[in-house]
Amino acid sequence: MGYKSSRTVISVLQLLIFFTLTEATTTFYRATLCDVKTRLANKCMTSVNKPERIVNCCVRCSSDSSCLGASVQLNTSSCYIHTQCSGTTDCSKGDPGFKYYSKRPDKLPCVYGTWNEATWSCKCSYPRVGKLCDRLPTNCTEFGQYWPTTYGDSMIALNPSPINRNVITVCSRTKDSLSTIVLRNVGEQNFNRTLSDYVQGFLTNPPPYNLSFWVGMDAMPSLLGPTPRNMRISIFFNSATPKRYDYRYSGVVLGDSSTNYMLTYESYTALSGAPNGNCLELSNMTSFSTWDSDNDKDSTENWASRAGAGWWFPSSNFTCNPLGAFYNKSTPPTDDGYLRFPGISTDLIRNNLVRIELHIEDPYA
Ligand SMILES: *[C@@H]1O[C@H](CO)[C@@H](O)[C@H](O)[C@H]1NC(C)=O
Ligand SMILES: *[C@@H]1O[C@H](CO)[C@@H](O)[C@H](O)[C@H]1NC(C)=O
Ligand SMILES: *[C@@H]1O[C@H](CO)[C@@H](O)[C@H](O)[C@H]1NC(C)=O
Ligand SMILES: *[C@@H]1O[C@H](CO)[C@@H](O)[C@H](O)[C@H]1NC(C)=O
Ligand SMILES: *[C@@H]1O[C@H](CO)[C@@H](O)[C@H](O)[C@H]1NC(C)=O
Ligand SMILES: *[C@@H]1O[C@H](CO)[C@@H](O)[C@H](O)[C@H]1NC(C)=O
Ligand SMILES: *[C@@H]1O[C@H](CO)[C@@H](O)[C@H](O)[C@H]1NC(C)=O
C-alpha cells in the first residue's frame, strides 16, 4: 500500500515505513516501546497533544533530526515524539498499548549482555563480543577493543575463524602493548607430544591462566592474520637481574599442514638488556618437528624425539629447546631433553627460570 503526494512519497509496509522526502530518505522500523512511565517522566517521549494516524506522526518525526521515533497510543490515537533518553529504561517488557516506529532498528536480543538504552546497543558481558554479544572474540585485538581497560594477562577463549573450536589463550595487555600468548612453558607440562597434539593445542586442565599451554598450529594462522606479524619470545626469571629477556621476530609467516607448519621470518632483535640469543637462528624456512613427525634437516636423527619436545628443529646442531624439561623434574629427561636457550647460561636456566612464552604481537588499539 502506498500513495504519492507532490513532495512526499510514503509507503507503508508491514514492518517498515519509508519516507522519501525530496532531500533524504527516512526509514522507520517497527519497534517495541518499553517503560513509557520513565520516558514520559524524563521527557524523552512527548505528546504533541493531537490524535494522529501513525503515518502522520512519523512525517512529523522525519523532518526533525532530534526525533528518534514516533508512536501512537492505541486507545486515544495520541501522537508522541521520541528523543534521546539519558537515563536507564526498563526494557524487560514492552508496552502493547502503543504502536511505535523508530528511526533505529528495534532493540537487539542481547544474548550475553544487557540492552543499553542510551547507546541503543547491547552491552556485552565479559568476555563476549559482537552486536548481539553472542560470540567470543576472534583475536586479542578484538578482545582489546571491547575490554580496553583490562590490563595484565587475561586467560580467555577465542574463536578465531575459520577454526571450529574455542581456543584458550592469554591476551596480555600493558599500557602500550597488546599480545596473544600462543605458548607458555612453566615446567609442569610434558611437551614431548605428538604432532596431532601440537596441531590441536593442549593445556593443563582445568586451566589456571599461569600454567603451560600451546594454542595449536590450526589456530596460529588466523591468530597471526593475513599479513606478516611480529612474534616475541619472552623469558622470565625469579632473580632481580635479569628479570626477563625479550626477543622479537618480525615478518613472521607460518605455513599450514602442506608445509608441515614451516616458519619464515624476516629479522631477529634481542630487545633491551637481553643477551644475543636467537632461538630460531637456523630455523628460517624450517618445518615443525615432533617425535612422531620428523621434519628436521638431519636424515639420520630424530631431534624432536631426542629433545623431548616439539619445535622448528633445524638440524643436529640444535642450540634451542624452549619446550624442553625444567631442571627440577623429579624424573630427569633422557638424551637432550632439558630446556636450553642460546646465550643464556645453564646455571641461570637451572636456578632461576620461571617461564618461557611465545607471543604474537597485536596491533595496539
Ligand atoms: C489507554 O490505555 C492506557 C494503558 O495503555 C490506560 O492507562 C489509559 O487510561 C487509557 N486511556 C483511555 C482514555 O482509555
Ligand atoms: C599460579 O597461580 C596460583 C594462584 O595465584 C599460584 O598459587 C601458583 O603458584 C601459580 N603458579 C605458577 C607456576 O606461577
Ligand atoms: C581480529 O578480528 C577482527 C574481528 O573479527 C578482524 O576484523 C581483524 O582483522 C582481526 N585482526 C587480525 C590481525 O587478524
Ligand atoms: C628467511 O627466509 C626468507 C625467504 O627465503 C627470506 O626472505 C628472509 O630474509 C630470511 N630471514 C632471515 C632472518 O634470514
Ligand atoms: C619422547 O617421546 C618419544 C616417544 O614416546 C620417546 O621415544 C622419546 O625418548 C621421548 N624423548 C624424551 C627426551 O624423553
Ligand atoms: C651451530 O649453531 C651455531 C649457532 O646456533 C653456529 O654459530 C654454528 O656455526 C653452528 N655449527 C655448525 C657446525 O653448524
Ligand atoms: C618446577 O618449576 C616450575 C616453575 O617454577 C613449577 O611450576 C613446577 O611445579 C616445578 N616442578 C617440580 C617437579 O618441582
UniProtKB/TrEMBL annotation:
It holds the Pfam family Fibrinogen_C. One of its GO terms (cellular component) is extracellular space. Keywords: Signal. PROSITE patterns: FIBRINOGEN_C_2. Residues 131-320 form the Fibrinogen C-terminal domain. InterPro entries: Fibrinogen-like_C (IPR036056), Fibrinogen_a/b/g_C_1 (IPR014716), Fibrinogen_a/b/g_C_dom (IPR002181), Fibrinogen_C-term_domain (IPR050373). Transmembrane segments: none annotated. Residues 1-24 form the signal peptide. Gene3D superfamilies: Gamma Fibrinogen, chain A, domain 1. This is Fibrinogen C-terminal domain-containing protein. The lineage of its organism: Eukaryota, Metazoa, Spiralia, Lophotrochozoa, Mollusca.
